[in-house]
Write a structure and sequence with these properties.
It is built from two helices and 22 strands. It is mainly beta. The protein folds into two domains: 121 residues, no CATH class; 218 residues, Porin.
Amino acid sequence: MVAGMFLSLGIAGARADQVTLKNGDRLSGAIVKADGKELVLKTDYAGDLTLKWSAVDAFTTAEPIHVALAGGQTVRGTATGAAGSEEIATEGGGKQTAALDSIAAIRNDTEETAYEAQQRLLSHPRLTDFWSSYFDTGISLTRGNADNLSVAIQGKAIREAPKNKFTVQGAYVEAKNTVAGVTTTTASQSLGGLRDDISLTDHFFVFGSSDFEHNPIQLLNFRYVLDAGAGYHVIKSMSTTFDLFAGGSYKQDQFSTGLIVKSAQALVGDELDYKLNNRAGVSERLTFYPDLSQRGQYFMTLDTTATTKLYKWISWQVTFSDRYLTNPVPGTQKNDLLLTTGLRMTFGKAAAF
């Protein structure tokens, strides 16, 4: 088995933490944290391993850890476990026994310090707290018989509090081609948006958003879309978030031909953030807008990004975007595809993806 292979590669010393799974496998390393859904084990042989909490039968620690119990009490000490039960030898010399299903969270000293700092922050939050952001840039340049220049810039800032997530984002793409002294613009697009998500429960949330777009290649002077609806967190763990959402929308397109198209729309979509490991991740967001004003017409947006962390706050990103409109202005295409790649600079607590 995979766990057996890990053990064959070498156990990290006599003082390593041990995690015993319900299938009998044992893994060695250092327990970082657990939240009742997943347990993170740091190993020398495979980096950070994320284990399903439901698959854990017991754990034993070499160093004191912080164990949060379901009743609200947190104790610190070394743990010794077997068959779904843990005995915690506290620093005061006492012992406390707890069933595995009564443990709400586990944190090492580093995670506990961060947790306590977050709790203090939650008690007195400021408008400038909880922000993180990233900035992507990509440039392509050629010179010779034909001169080409393309620039792609995008960024996102997120304020993610426990019950609220506010997002500001924008993107700009420009590409020009010069042959025999004649310059042609082959791509030009500006995007922006605001979104506010409010959690009602651990799984249900409501949202409102506004999106803006300028695309002269499609003869689109200005598009704005106002959305509102509700969603459900299908998966919400340390490594994966997967949401489904639906609602209503209003869209107005103003074209350079003088045409103005206004439409009421339904909306349905999904959003995925998946952390492959501590260096790489993918994100995806798909929104489908059936037109309620014109039967059979619709508008669709898709944004997918894969990132690989190069060093701390610097990553390499590849982004694929698609905007599809079934009834464009005559003489323009229905589909606008965009593929960009370049560096991503991450600030604050933003994930690598």
